[in-house]
Amino acid sequence: MKARHKRLALILGGMGLLTAAILLVLSAFQENLVFFHSPSDILQGQATPERMLRIGGIVEEGSVQRQADGLTVQFAVTDTASSIPVVYQGSLPDLFREGKGVVAQGRLDEAGLFHASQVLAKHDENYMPPEAADALQQAQKSMLTVVQP
C-alpha cells in the first residue's frame, strides 16, 4: 500500500469516528431535551405523549388530593384558561400550595394525565419562571378576546 493510500485511509477512518461521535452526542442531547408547555398548549395538542416535558402554571384551588400512602399527590395545574391533572409520587417542596406557581417535569400519558417526576414551587411572591408567566399572560389574553364581543 502506498503512503498516499495509507493517508487517505487514515483520513477517512478519522472522519468516520468523528461522525459517529457527533451522532452519539446529538442523540444524547435529543433524549435529554425538555420543552416547556402551558396547560393550554397541551390541550391544543402541542405536546407529544410519552415525551419528557415541563408544564407550568398555578396549582388549582381545591384540586390537591393526597392518597392514603402519604407520598402520592394529585393536583391540577392551570393557566387560568385550561387545566391539566397531575400525579406525583414523592415529597413536595415546602412552598407547594394551592393558588401558587408551580413547574412540574414528567410525561403526559395517552389519557391526558401528567405523571410528574419532579415538582418545583415558586420560591417567593415576586418570581415565576418566564415561560410560566408568558403562558399565563397568553391564556388571560385569549380569554379576554373570547369574552369580549
Please give the largest β-sheet: 5 strands, mixed, barrel
Order of strands side by side in the largest beta sheet?
2-4-5-7-6
Q: How would you sum up the global shape?
A: elongated
Radius of gyration: 22 Å
How many structural domains are formed by the residues?
A: 2
Number of strands: 7
- Stretches with pLDDT under 50, minimum 5 residues: none
Instruction: Compute the separation of the termini in Å.
Output: 82 Å
Task: Write up this protein.
The protein is of the alpha+beta class. The protein folds into 2 domains: 1-33; 34-147, Beta Barrel (OB fold (Dihydrolipoamide Acetyltransferase, E2P)). The protein is built from 3 helices and 7 strands. The protein has a 5-stranded mixed β-barrel. α2 (39-43) links the parallel β1 and β2 (52-59). It starts with a helix and ends with a helix. It comes from Corticimicrobacter populi. Residues 29-149 are extracellular. It is found in: Cell inner membrane; Cell membrane. Heme chaperone required for the biogenesis of c-type cytochromes. Transiently binds heme delivered by CcmC and transfers the heme to apo-cytochromes in a process facilitated by CcmF and CcmH. Heme binds at residues 123, 127.
